[in-house]
Amino acid sequence: MSKFTDVDSSNRSDSVKTNNNQPNQESSSQTIFTVEEIHKILPHRYPFALVDRIIEYVPEEKAVGIKNVSFNEPHFQGHVPGLPIMPGVLIVEAMAQVGGVVLTQLPGMEGSFFAFAGMDKVRFRRRVVPGDQLIVSVELLSFKRGRFGKMQGSATVDGQLAAEGEMMFSLIE
Fold first, then answer.
1. Residue 68 and residue 81: Cα distance in Å, rounded?
2. Residues recognised as catalytic
């Protein structure tokens, strides 16, 4: 297993890559990882799989995922009856799952599991309701000692910020 001391943005490539390592010129309309491929990377399953696809991926740097919010999701039955609102903790979990895609694709980390270890500066800015498409963006801020990651995440709906915050992860062996 490879040991990293830190992932630093000055050593990163600016090109967006697909999962075939080919430059991606139209990342906003192209699926990089399908839901089936995400299920091979992350252990989460219904009803806790909160990423439908990855539409942008820059190795060792960032990813952008989509969560299609459906009225059929079980949390809407009891979370504010008559006013269905996606729980904020699930929005943050969706950000963490997109972060998990980035972390598990780092060199030497394939097949690893990173637990969500903490969050800082989390703020909720807009309601997320059934029918919304949540666009989740995460950026790797640091990866230390081959086991601790820190990421900045945001979630938007129709270009409006719904949530943002920093997340910490720890490798589970």
1. 20
2. 79
Instruction: Count how many domains the chain has.
Output: 1
Handedness of CA 104, 170, 63, 48 (dihedral sign): positive
pTM of the entire structure? 0.83
Each residue's pLDDT tens digit, 47-93: 999 999 999 999 999 999 999 999 999 999 888 888 999 999 999 99
Please check whether residue 81 lies inside any domain of the structure: yes
160 within a domain of the structure (yes/no): no
Containing structural domain, residue 48? 18-59+72-89+112-128
Residue type, 127: R
**Structural domain contains residue 1:** no
Q: Tabulate helix, strand, coil % of the chain (nearest 5).
A: 20, 35, 45
